[in-house]
Every structure is written in structure tokens, then in C-alpha cells.
């Protein structure tokens, strides 16, 4: 989930002699001295606090500071006019350690670096294996696969019609196989649902053209066109429509031969472009098998239509539990990675029930119909009166009782004439009595040819993906109800491999594929937790990834809080007690907290206003009760921290007023541990340090403490799928004061909404580009000798899980695996740095792409583990290096704020800017 770069100083580059000038004889200017590193923590904190100017309690000045969260400087501008983001000025490092997510921000793209002769850097091979740590026997959700070296043939298929509707392509190709099996020599094929299919061995000829007739290819073909603007144009028309069929002309032509033996070469460490193609073929075979069973396919995951797999998330949305399956090349051979997966779907059932729950109303008359129209568009429904499926294109302008359409009279004296009839009257003539004629109809037709069906006769089709953003409550419910204990997850994936009966699949069998039914055994090691230093330079040894500040343990570098206040948005808390308990707890931790200036309660009338108005009203009361701007504000929220007030409150404080703030929610157990956790965050925000590594304190970190080193973390977060209007948010976090690695600055900005995920990072070209962009960006800045780089990608978005072989609990913190299930050639390892008391722990997958420093595997693994213990907001090791946790907090702030203005993207579109942090808080790391 992050990328790390380490660098050692290179020899200085020779500068070409400049052309002669009138001042050629003048003495050259002396070289600019390199400032010494700030190694004293007290000086670091003093420099931080010095940036907070004393000023009137007012809105921000006109000259807004940079949107870089702490310490950014404008070094240059890119050709697009966007500033290059850098950490604050520091001496040129000899080591640059950069940790970023599996696709971090492409620095080369941001500054548009053009290099006609780029240096080709190939991801390094594994130099050796780690040795340190206690041995542990593990199981992994990989299943061993045996494969024979048979060739597969890639074939391109084309159709003369544009296929409209999901699953139609598969029906067409199934019909081709059924009708023309003899022409295809009886060969089965794997179809990807679009334009590619694969066979084992060649077909009798390279080109085919087949004509197939497919009945009931859509709702109109199956149930008949319901008429121009009408529910149906009569029995005669409907009778003809039930027998309508569509003709498809399918062209099949040879594309390429994919040797499956290339997988065997990849398993021996040989890099081959064919290996990924071969794995793709095998994955398509797995997808096709599930498609035939009627499953919803989402990339390499599949979800069956079983109500037992559904979890109600409220709002008409359900979590659907399914399975992920994919083939992986590992050092132990080819394996099938099987894991539990979850996606969101629209809750199946009556449409009016969906609308009630989606809008959280009790009566159908209270529905906001413009909002409902937007929500229902493009969803599929089934009409219960004729069992037909339709796609919703909109709503009628009038209710069923008044919505009319033209219909031809088919009998009587007026036969052949066109009359206007209401939808209600029409269905009554067909012996269907509507109980809710006051509701609008669903329009399931085309823009110029509407088709109306009453809402009460429609049900939501199952397995329709819900791609909109979830609310905070829905996310919390999904996480809570998706948890599985390790033993349960092991049972689910093992049963899935047995029940899917892969050995009976004709294509897999013809490829000679045999899949074991047991989890793969893996050898792991448990690294010792690093020792921490707290107050009075006392050592603190974590136990199972945890430590605490009980028994009057002081913080390493506590702050003093003199000017502060408490604001209360909650109607059910005692602010005097909160103030008293916080001061007393702070005293035991070494934090001197003066009595608050004032306790400000929200007016009862304001609680009925919008969140923005409530925040503005509260600040007016704060100004009236304080003599000047406070150093810090403690905010008591009425509910969860991610309530509607959180975003406006943070924006007002950090963007407009320049005040550091901490939000809390009243809890039943507001004990000493609760206040300690709050104080850890407050101390870090105000420039203090809660703890640091003992090795860091004693300058004993291998390599890092020997040479000036900068550690960077990078990530890009994206909006929900389908939200092209939401920009991506790029964050960069850098260590501040070498040789410390526990203090950071951060930079955040928006960029054009592009998805840069590379899945499981199997693409070799992507890995090369990932490393090359960082070198090019540094060259672009022309900051002197290029430091030595070590580039590490840390990835959380994968499906490998680790289990203890002889225990029901999660793997212990510090577990590392660099054998068995890792890449056969590349330098990667899995690490579970944190303790997992709930659910099943997900290890982080680290890839070392480039290493000029020459870390030993044990050194890299211990450094990454140590960085998981320096996250200042927590008393537990986190699952990734601390830089990842840092920029996640900045992305969270960006997602809860709305920006104005924008910067141009590479496509020319304007990308909204993030709100600029006020100058008085831009150096605080933990806002």
C-alpha cells in the first residue's frame, strides 16, 4: 500500500562550462552551503511552533497559503501550470526511502517529465531470503495446481449487431457452440463475454462465419413490444412478439497461439509476456464456469443469487458475499487463490419497498420523485403480471390514473381508430386492478417510444450492482457484518474449491489442470517487535503488537496547552466533567493543560439548522466568549465522528480560522484509557511526540542513521466507480527531521480522476514505469546529485490470507512470509505487522522494485515492521508503514471538504482544488 525509496549519495555531476560572457573573468560564486540536518527533536518542535503567528481572531488573509498540507514549498511549475509538490526544504538526502501505494501518484505525469532516452530499470530479483525471527507453520488460501504444457488459441469474434444487454453475448456464443459443434470439431471454448474466446488447440480453419437465431434476447423479444407509448398494443401484437427472434451473424477468426508452457517458464523465474496471457485464459475459464451458473461477475469475483449471502445495509442496498478466484504464479508453483469477496447490490424486492427504504420514509406519498427517478434510471425490474424484465429509462409525468397513451381499437364499431386511454383503464380491461393508481409509472421504453408499467407491478431484479458511494453508516454495517474468524474463512474457501468441481470442467481437464483440495502450507517467521522509548527515556516493549501509557507512563515529548476551549454540539454530555478528567489524565502523561477559557454549548434552536449553519453559529459564540484565537478547540459531536457536522467543522477550523481541533463523541466508557487515546492525538497535532523507536533514539537504525535519509509515502485515492466528477486525491508524506523517522510532513492535491490500480502488480511494464517516474521527477527538479533510491510498493488490495496451522487465532503481529506463495523471481514478501483481534487479518504485500542502497532482506523487513510502530495516533502497530496511515488521514480530510477553484488536468478539464489549509495549521501533521 505504499512505496519506499532510500538513497545514498552519488558522486557530484560535472557541470559543463558555460559560454563566455562579459563577466567571464569574474571569480565564480561560491557554492551554496548545504544546511545541516535538524536532528534535535526540541529544535524541530520549536520550529513547528514558531510558524503559528499570534493574530486577530478573524477569517484567513487574502493571500492563501499553499494547499500542501505541512511544509510545502513551490519549487517549480509543471508545463500545465500545476505546482510540483515537495516536502519542506531539507538537505539533499543521500538516501531516499519512498513508500507508496500500489499505484502511487505518478510524479513523472504530474510534472510532465519528458525523457527521450529514459534509463530502463527492471524490478530487481530476490537477492536472498530472510532468516531472522521465530519459525511458524502457516496455511494460506492458495491451492496447488498441476498444469500440463498444452497450447491455447486466442480467437477474435465479431457480430454484425451491437449487442445491447448484459449476458446476451454469452447466449449468442452458447448458441453458436450448440448449433455448429461439428464445424468446430466439437471443441469447447472459453468466452470472455466480449470479443475474445479461447480453445485448447486449433480449430479446423482460421475463419468462420455463423448465423444464429436467438429467441427472447431482450424483454421486448420475450414479452413483446408493449406498443408505441402504451403498456401493450393488444393480444394480436403480443402474440406475435412472443415468437420474435433476433438474427446474429458471428464472425470468428484466428488471433494468436498462447503456449500454456510459458507458465512453467514463469514458475522457473523466466520473464515472459505469454505467461500473463496464459493466466488470463485460465481465469476466463473460471469466469465462464460461474457465468453458466447465473452468477454476477465482478472482475475475478463471482456472486450467486442466494438470499443467505445477503447482508442488509439499509437504504435499499445489500452486501452480497461471494468468492474471488484467480491463478497465481508463485515460488512454490502455480496456485489457485480463493478468497471471500463482497460487493454491493440493489436489494431485490418490490420497487415501492426499495424507494421507501432508499429515502427512509414510511409512506409512499412522501417519496421525492425527482430523486427516485435519478436512482431508478438504468436499473432492471421484472413485471409480475407477465414475468418480463425491463430496464428503467425514467418515470411517467402523470400518475397511472391520469397518464394516457394512444391505443388502436380492435373490435366494435370503432375498430381501427386510435383512442387515448389511461394506464389504469388499460390494466383494468386486462383484469389487473391497481391498488396504487396515484403513483407514477415506470418508463421502460425509449425516449421517443415510452412504455409504461405501474410501479406496484414491478420487482427489482436480483444481483444488480450498486455502484454509488455508501454512507458512513452503511460502510460501518458492511465491515461489521462481513467479518469472519480465520477458521470460518478457511472452511468457506476450502468448501468452495470442493463444490465448484473444477476437475470436471472440460476445458480445465483438457489443459491437464488438477487442483488440490487443501490449503497450501507455508513457512513463516515472527519478527520481534521493536522497543519504543517513552517519557523520561524509558523503554517500552510492545506485547502482541500493543502497548499502553497506563501506570503513569509519560509521553516522550509532551506539549503544554494554555489557550483552549470546549464546544458542545451534543445535548447529552457534561462538559465540566470532560474538562476536569482530560486535565487530570494529561497531568499523568506529562501534558500540562490549563483550565479552558470557556465551555460553549449549542443553542437548542440551532440544532434544527443545516450543518454549515450550525458550525457558523457556534463560531460566532466562540468569538464572543474568547479574547483571541485559541491554540486548540475540543469539539464534542452529537454522534459518530463522521456525522454531518464533522466536515464543515474541520473545514472551518483548518481552512478558514487556522485552529487545531480534536473531535470526540460522548461514550459510555469515558475512562482513563479513553482520555489517553484522545490526548495522544492532541499531543501529536500540537507538535509533540508520543513515542519513538529505541533504535531511532540511539541512532542505531541500520543504514538510515548512517547517511542522511528521506522516507516518503505516496498514495492516490479515487472516487466511487462511475463518479467521473470526483477528482482523485494524491497525498505525499515525508520524514521531517533526519535522523528521526517518526516525524512527517505531508502534501495533498487533487488530480484528474484516473484509476491507476494495477491489480496484483503482475504487469512488468507498469513496475518499470513506477520506478522510472520517480527518478525523472528528481532529475526534473535539478536538486543536485541524485540520491540512491529504494522503491517499495506496499499493497493491501489483494486476496492472500495467512492462517496459523495449529491455532484458531490470527497470525501473531510481526509475521512475515517470503517463500512458498511469493513471486518466483521478483523481490516481494507478505507481512502482518498488526494484531487482528476481530475478523481475519490481511497481510500487506510488499514489492521491492528497486534497491540501490543494498538492503539485506532482513533489514528491509525489520525497517518496514519498525515503521508500523511509529504511528503517533495509536498504541498498536498498524497494518502498514506509518506513512500510509498518515496520508490516509489527509485523504479523509479532503473527502469531507469541498474545494473551490481548480487546476487543469492532463486532459484539459478543470479539476477541483482542495481547500487550502490556513498558514497557522499547515505544519501540523495530524489535523
UniProtKB/TrEMBL annotation:
Residue ranges of every copy of the Piwi domain listed in the record: 632-882
Coiled-coil intervals: none
Domain PAZ: 350-462
GO BP, sorted A to Z: regulatory ncRNA-mediated gene silencing
SUPFAM superfamilies named in the record: PAZ domain, Ribonuclease H-like
Stretches with biased composition (Pro residues): 28-39, 58-68
Classification via InterPro entries: ArgoL1, ArgoL2, Argonaute_N, PAZ_dom, PAZ_dom_sf, Piwi, RNaseH-like_sf, RNaseH_sf
Region (Disordered): 1-87
Gene3D superfamilies noted in UniProt: 3.40.50.2300, paz domain, Ribonuclease H-like superfamily/Ribonuclease H
Amino acid composition bias (Low complexity), ranges on this chain: 40-50
GO molecular function: RNA binding
Keyword tRNA-binding part of the UniProt annotation: no
Keyword check for rRNA-binding: no
Keyword line: RNA-mediated gene silencing
Family: Belongs to the argonaute family. Ago subfamily.
Xref: PANTHER family: EUKARYOTIC TRANSLATION INITIATION FACTOR 2C (PTHR22891)
Protein name per UniProt: Piwi domain-containing protein
Organism: Oryza glumipatula
